[in-house]
Write a structure and sequence with these properties.
The protein is mainly α and about 140 residues long. It is about 40% helix and about 0% strand. The protein contains 4 helices and no strands. Helix 1 packs antiparallel against helix 2, helix 1 runs parallel beside helix 3 and helix 2 packs antiparallel against helix 3. The termini are far apart. The relative contact order is 0.07.
């Protein structure tokens, strides 16, 4: 079992590095063309995969330090449903009219009547009943 361990380690490293190299975009491959990296990984045991893994990590870290992405704009739509006026309007059709209190509609005042002058008397001084002469 122990004598197969170096072969298994080499095989696992080779397969991992090969898949990593194949999945890496062409513009992110460090220093050499991708096909040459694949040949090095497959035909140079231990050294090929280890060099690929080290170089790709170092190259990726260097690229991340240089590239600065612009800040993204906040989303145009509201984040929560209770902030969205369209969503709130759509809920009106599910409300029960028996339990929903509607605000009282204001009664429009006639515009053609002149405004009555107010007396200096307060409301407590004004008679509440009409005096028709009967006691």
């Amino acid at each position: 079992m122990v004598r197969f361990l170096p072969f298994l380690i080499s095989l696992v490293l080779t397969v991992y590095a090969l898949f990593s190299c194949i999945q890496t975009p062409d513009e992110d491959v460090p220093h050499l063309p991708k096909l040459l990296w694949i040949v090095l990984i497959v035909f140079v045991p231990f050294a090929g995969p280890i060099v690929w893994l080290l170089m790709s990590r170092a190259y990726g870290n260097r690229q991340q330090q240089v590239v600065r992405r612009p800040a993204t704009q906040p989303p145009a739509r509201p984040l929560a449903p209770d902030d969205d006026p369209d969503f709130l309007k759509s809920l009106d059709r599910y409300r029960d009219p028996r339990t929903t209190a509607k605000p009282a509609e204001p009664t429009p005042e006639p515009a053609d009547e002149p405004e009555k002058p107010r007396d200096s008397k307060g409301p407590e001084d004004s008679p509440t009943e009409t005096d028709d002469g009967k006691a």
